[in-house]
Amino acid sequence: KLGYYTYDFNTKQFDASKYLTDLMGLNAGIGNLQSWIAIIHPEDRFILEDALKQRLRDEATPLDVTYRVIKPLDGKVYWMHHTAQALQKDTQGHLLPVLGVLQDITEHKLFELSLTESESLLNKMQTIAKLGSFDYDILSRKGSFTKECAEITGFKNKNEISFDEWLTIVHPDDQESNQKAFDLCKREGANYDQEYRIITKDKQELKWLHGLGTVVFKDGIAKNFMGTIQDITQRKLAEEKLKQSDTILNKLSPIVLVVNDIGEILYASPSIKDSLGFESSDMLGQGWWQLTYENLTQANLIKEAVLGYFFKNKELLIDISLRKLITKNGEEKWFEWRVSRGFGNTYISIGIDVTQRKLAEEKLMIATKKIAESENRFREIFEKSGDAILIIKNEQFIDCNQAAIKMLGYNTKEEFINTHPSKLSPEFQPDGLSSFQKAQTMMQTALDHGTNRFEWRHTKKNGEVFPVEVLLTAISNEPDNRLIHCVWRDITELEREAQIKEIIYNITKKASSTLNIEKLFVFIKSELQKLINTNNFFIALYDKTSDMISTPFMVDEQDEGSDFPKGKTLTGYLIDTKKSLLASQQMLLKLQSDHKVEILGPLSKCWLGVPLIIGKKAIGAIVIQSYTDERAYSQKDLELLELVASNIGQ
After folding, report:
1. Are 335 and 320 in contact (CB under 8 A)?
2. Does the domain made of 496-649 have the CATH classification 3.10.129.10?
3. pLDDT tens for residues 25-77?
């Protein structure tokens, strides 16, 4: 995935290979350096800019940088490796055109990031693992060990024991294999790696240990045996239970169902006989729903959820991947399901009996939960998390971390805890449902099914409504103690990006389907209004022959549209410089005092304009302004307007 280009310092233009323009997602070519930088991820633009500055300071330095780009065609993020030859000059001291190469390294980068994440997680887990270390003097047959080692083995209040003392706790059935492994280390220098059992010294408990070690030689003589031991008892117990589950699963065959868009079973595999006791013919039509669920209400809930998801594009509000079924003789069995779209108006469900695994997982979950319920660790994670975390008890927030306080714009949590989630929300959600009723439904779904993930609108202290992704996890569903762990993730920027893509798509589609330029301009204004205040908005076109600027479309609270000479007007400034401008009132006055522009009409508090460019010529501009708010527009608004202008220009 390589593309190349040449850059001419005299014309300041790129000559790119077709594969490079395809690679960068630029159908119209690269153009100038600003066009190139415009598609670089905003967080990475400094990388290329700094590298270019360094090249100008040190011309012998080749360019070699890595950064992300956002392709205009699909809006997706890609990683690029950008190299270019060192700068060279001709005999007159002019910079010669430079050759550069870009390579798409997205797949490699994503793998590299995934590997880094895995390594980081491994390091964190190692820090909390209970490991003990030891150092055994082979000649004196005595060894020292750490406090953790003493805790694991039951030799409390001791930091040194003899080899004979150690042998007293090794399980009799494991002593011979352990001794052979140790002798091999002393004789050949092999690494020691053994899993074995002990009977603890203090409580006579059976434990499994994983020992790692190595022998240190001096002058060819084995002097010391050093290593670590780790208590792996819980892992061994879990492995044994999983082995039992796997043995059972291997003896079972999956259930396969083919279902049409009205919920009728068209095909049921013969394995149903072994799994549930029914004949496959009993399952056809509505038989599956009528015979394998506890009641028709539950069956219809699952059926409607699946049909709605596959054939009506509805959101799944319940978990359908794990379901409890009733066998012909009335027993309960758990099945894990994989559901996919089939041919025509059908979907295919494949279910595997995981009853034994489910029971084993529930026992492991209880054991794991008891271990994890350490108040100090939970509080540290709770308070230091970058995500907003809240605790809900009996439908009211009772606690939260600092990230939640900051997200809502409050000073302390006491200002809003002990309130229903709807009190921190607008009266209605985007789907028209009241926040109170929908919050009740979402919390009950989490309590019934364990978790529930969905999008929500909350309200900050200043009244600003913002979108979040909510993950509810049930902690307790006991009467008068309904506890839910709640995590918020602010998705404002994600929604804005989605809106921008939609706006650009709508404008592009409209531009290609209408010949009425006035209707197009009205449509552009209405689309931009979704994200930007366009109360004062105009589109200007420049006639080079007459040197006049016309405003075929203008909406303004204090000014009326009319043709005017380009001169040193702000709009003319955009056309001359071919650069966008976001200016405060103070900046506008500075431009005027520097004799760069002459301000006509009412003075804006905030002025934003971008040139309309076709090819290399500026043929007009899009301008919005505010007479009252000096912070009405931002850099992101400028970038949006540039995207619109570039699409109009195409």
Report:
1. no
2. no
3. 776 666 677 777 888 899 998 988 888 888 878 888 888 999 998 887 788 88
